[in-house]
Design goal:
The chain is an alpha+beta fold and 282 residues long. It is built from 9 helices and 9 strands.
């Protein structure tokens, strides 16, 4: 029997409370982009207040597809996705929330000793602690602990128990890494200007911004093979934007920050970037 009516009912209920939702397919992953949005060819949403979704009627752009619009949630393209979905997810940051994902019993015990109590929801292996307030998302901030908020998604596993409290500084502090004295100067990874005269070859600044945002997300969401993911992501960014002179030190710093938040060393970031440039002949 199809789970569509149940999942869609849950999604519509959440959306009515202002929580943007989206379906997840097998493996608890978002649906992939359609052919029109493959490789971010669509450039995302024009106002760029949130990178995606574009004007595509499908469930594209992962977490950015989340919506509260019942007309979209019940549209033919989304209904087809709900038929294949295994669960409902939501965009915590867009709802003004932060989810501390405690992936095992040890992480739950640590949170109970360290973090202020708030609403909690049981997961397969641990708990989600939900706070009121948004912040940047980070994985592996502590053994078995991820932070899901802006530019991320979390599974909806029920209303949970307890009173939701305001996002405390102790949670924000988990995402702050001590500066590394070994971090190279940004000029070591700067990209030389190309024939694009400082503009992305696609001539749409939104395309570049979306490319960097999606690259950050790809690194942040890596669950394994982080070294390879970082290299492949750097390679993808450079292959698209590395020859038109549009990349700046600020863009590169964002990618390095995302990689280091996953535990990569500054040296590995520099090596991966250099290797990617060498491979592309930049």
């Amino acid at each position: 029997m199809s789970t569509t009516p149940h999942l869609l009912s849950v999604a519509l209920t959440l959306a009515a409370t202002g929580v943007p939702v989206l379906p997840l397919r097998a493996g608890k992953a978002p649906f992939g982009n359609c052919h029109r949005c493959a490789n971010n060819a669509c450039g995302g949403r024009p106002d760029m207040k949130n990178p995606g979704p574009c004007q595509c009627p499908g469930v594209c752009h992962a977490w950015a597809a989340a919506t509260t619009d019942p007309a979209v949630l019940t549209s033919p393209a989304w209904t087809a996705a709900w038929r294949r979905a295994v669960c409902v997810a939501y965009d915590p940051g867009a709802a003004g929330l932060t989810v501390v994902d405690l992936d095992n019993a040890a992480a739950v015990d640590w949170a109970r000793e360290t973090l202020p109590a708030t609403r909690s929801v049981e997961t397969t292996r641990g708990e989600h602690w939900i706070y009121r307030g948004a912040m940047s998302s980070h994985n592996a901030v502590h053994p078995g602990i991820d932070i899901k908020s802006t530019m991320s998604y979390a599974r909806y596993l029920g209303p949970g128990t307890g009173t939701m409290t305001t996002l405390p500084d102790t949670v924000r502090a988990l995402a702050v890494k001590e500066p590394s004295t070994a971090r190279p100067a940004l000029h070591a990874v700067a990209v030389p200007s190309g024939p694009g005269n400082g503009e992305c070859r696609h001539r749409t600044p939104a395309y570049l911004e979306r490319g960097i945002a999606m690259a950050e997300q790809r690194i942040t969401e890596a669950r394994s093979a982080v070294h390879a993911t970082v290299y492949r992501t750097f390679l993808a960014v450079l292959s698209t934007h590395g020859r038109c002179g549009c990349l700046t030190d600020a863009h590169v710093a964002r990618l390095f920050t995302a990689a280091q938040a996953k535990g990569e060393s500054p040296r590995h970031c520099t090596d991966a970037w250099s290797n990617a440039r060498t491979r592309l002949g930049l």
